[in-house]
Specification:
The chain contains one helix and six strands; from the N terminus they run E-E-E-E-H-E-E. By secondary structure, it is of the alpha+beta class. Strands 5-1-4-6 form a four-stranded mixed β-sheet. Strands 2-3 form a two-stranded antiparallel sheet. The two termini are 13 Å apart.
């Protein structure tokens, strides 16, 4: 799932920047959306895969 970060965070030793779109596994992405760390990104946005 693609998410747009609402905060700057770190995930698996990678810095995730505020406002950037990343591809994250669905389980983690849903948890982030519910907690307010990220929002679902439209499929048209460019994304960076987060390992």
């Amino acid at each position: 799932m693609k998410v747009k970060m609402l905060v700057q965070s770190q995930y698996k030793s990678e810095l995730l920047r505020l406002g950037k779109v990343y591809e994250i596994n669905d389980k983690t992405a849903n948890r982030w959306v519910l907690s307010g760390l990220a929002e679902k990104a439209p499929e048209t946005d460019e994304s960076k895969p987060a390992e």
